[in-house]
Amino acid sequence: MRKPFIAGNWKMNNNCQTAVELAAGLALQLKEVDSVDIAVCPPFVYLQPVANALSFSNIALGAQNVYAEPNGAFTGEISCEMLRDNCCTYVIIGHSERRHKMGETDEMINKKIATAIVSGLLPIFCVGELLEQRKAGKTQTVVADQVRKGLDGLGVEKALAVTIAYEPVWAIGTGKTATPEQAQQVHKMIRQLLADIYDQSVAQQIRIQYGGSAKPANTAELMAKPDIDGLLVGGASLKADDFADMIKTAAETQN
Ligand code: PEP
Questions:
Q1: To test ligand 1's pocket by mutation, which of 5, 6, 9, 95 has the most ligand atoms within 8 angstroms of CB?
Q2: Per-residue pLDDT tens for 139-197?
Q3: 246-255 burial, b if ≥16 CB within 10 A, otherwise e?
Q4: Of residues 68 and 178, more confidently modeled
């Protein structure tokens, strides 16, 4: 049985004070929850203060991006080692905003995933189709291609370190959530693909999150789907009450 995993992607939001307050508020509200894995992913510059606010809590820390080289002349980039130094357990890789606004390719994403795992980080690997791709009936092929390319060359052991986040691009930050049925259809396809690439046992162990305007009101119905193992949450993770509510709902769905 896969333990649900809910992560908050704070994107380029908050300042130092509000980031720490948000983290401290979550730590307090979620201290009893042990049936859901929880993470928050603040901007790089707030990792350390947020880590302090989360010490002794059950909330893990993640980063929103990483660079695939260990060190060197890469102005403005951050390495896996640096993230580990700043208490990160997870790292979001291939978020649609990085794919479509910063031009990240499947090959770059694959390299980042492999490097992150070797460095002891757990990648949250994002995939998802654009609206025009969905309208053209290409959702399954686009997402399958992203999954294959992102995991290319990863053996079983490394694949088991990955969480996949299915995030239809048209649903991110738009208020338009995929219906639970639409999401389940893609999650099921991804799991079948994992069984084809690896085997059924690996496919049953890898967690697949849904992301795209997830909020308290739709958490229960999304989490009730058999192949939805958690959520990657943007906007709603910026409000402690909403994010805590979603995690508690997921914990109840579990019980
Ligand atoms: C995200 O940024 O990964 C995301 C899903 O954002 P939102 O929940 O705001 O749609």
A1: 9
A2: 999 999 999 999 999 999 999 999 999 999 999 988 888 899 999 999 999 999 999 99
A3: bbbbbbebee
A4: 68
Q: Give the residue, out of 102, 174, 233, with the most ligand 1 atoms within 8 A of its beta carbon, to mutate for a pocket test.
A: 233
Instruction: Quote the strand ranges of the chain, DSSP E.
Output: 5-9, 37-41, 59-63, 90-93, 122-127, 163-166, 208-211, 230-233
Give the span between the Cα atoms of 68 and 109, in whole angstroms: 9
- Measured in residues, the chain has a length of 255
**Residue 143 host element (H or E):** helix 139-151
Residue 173: its pLDDT value, please? Answer: 87
> Cα–Cα distance between 110 and 130 in angstroms, integer?
20
Residues near ligand 1 with C-beta < 6 Å? 9, 167, 172-173, 211-214, 232-236
Kindly report the pTM of this predicted structure: 0.97
